[in-house]
Amino acid sequence: MIGRLTGSIVDQGADGACVIDVNGVGYEVFVPLGALGRLPQGSSGGALANVVTLHVHTHVREDAFMLYGFATANDRAAFRVLIGVTGIGPKLALGILSSMSAADLADAIGKGDKGRFKGVSGVGTKLGARLVLELKDKLDFVRGEASSGAVARPKPQQAFDGPLGTVHAALVQMGFRPVEAEQAILQIGPLADGKQTEQLLREALSVLA
After folding, report:
1. If you average pLDDT over residues 157-174, what whole number do you get?
2. What is the CA angle 64-7-62, rounded to 5?
3. Longest alpha-carbon distance in the chain
4. Is 148 among the domain residues?
5. What's the CATH number where 109 sits?
6. Which pairing describes strands 25-30 and 51-61: parallel, antiparallel, or unpaired?
7. What's the rounded Cα separation, in Å, for the pair 186 and 132?
8. Strand pairing of 25-30 and 4-12?
9. Is residue 152 included in any domain, yes or no?
10. By CB neighbour count within 10 A (0-12 exposed, 13-18 middle, 19+ buried), where does 193 fall?
11. What is the dihedral of CA 55, 59, 65, 71, to 10 degrees?
């Protein structure tokens, strides 16, 4: 089983799939959206500048051998807890961790906050309630990382067309969570007509600064 990979990201897709080159061997790894942008780089310059380390869960089925990568060991542990819940497969677990960090997930479970799952694709009201029930006390190992103060709840993701859609995708690839990117787009959207993508991206980054 593969538990960790250190190498260079040579390709990545909008669906979270990426290829990490480890000594000339390319491994396809699926990561939560935005996770790559939050990974610490190997060094500030030189050949190691783009080297990253992913904590990997190896998922083996009769018809597939798939790798799921995470920025921290706690994110990977939270993923493993999620896939232990009936009805939660790797794809859905990855989607949940694309919408919230492991710490935010633990915070939601600890507070019994079913509403935090609203807007997570594939997680309806019943499944959200079951997650809160079944994961109680199972994520205490990351609760200490939960950010202090109020945490914005994810809203249902909206589809953005044209330049705004391009900016939204760019923000996610830069490491912002989908809900953060959406909030920025909603703020700059009313005055977006006639503006170039580059200008809209600068305005969105200013909102998120």
Report:
1. 72
2. 10
3. 52
4. no
5. 1.10.150.20
6. unpaired
7. 30
8. unpaired
9. no
10. exposed
11. -20
| Signed CA dihedral, 203, 204, 205, 209: sign only | positive
Distance CA 62, CA 89 (A): 15
| Residue 68 DSSP SS3 | strand
Same structural domain, 132 and 79:
yes
| pTM of the full structure | 0.64
What CA–CA distance (Å, rounded) separates 170 from 165?
9
Q: Which two tokens stand for residue 172?
A: 């996610």
Q: What is the mean pLDDT of residues 72-79?
A: 89
- Among 5-9, 80-84, 117-121, the least confident range: 117-121
Q: Are 49 and 43 in contact (CB under 8 A)?
A: yes
Contact 43, 50 (CB under 8 A): no
E-strand ranges in the chain read 4-12, 17-22, 25-30, 51-61, 64-70
Residue 87 has which token pair? 């009805």
Q: Which two structure tokens, joined as six digits, stand for 52?
A: 């990253």
Q: What CATH number does residue 199 fall under? A: 1.10.8
In terms of DSSP bridges, do strands 64-70 and 25-30 run parallel, antiparallel, or are they unpaired? parallel
> What would the pLDDT profile of 123-165 be if each residue is shown by its tens digit?
888 888 889 889 988 887 765 554 433 334 444 445 566 788 7
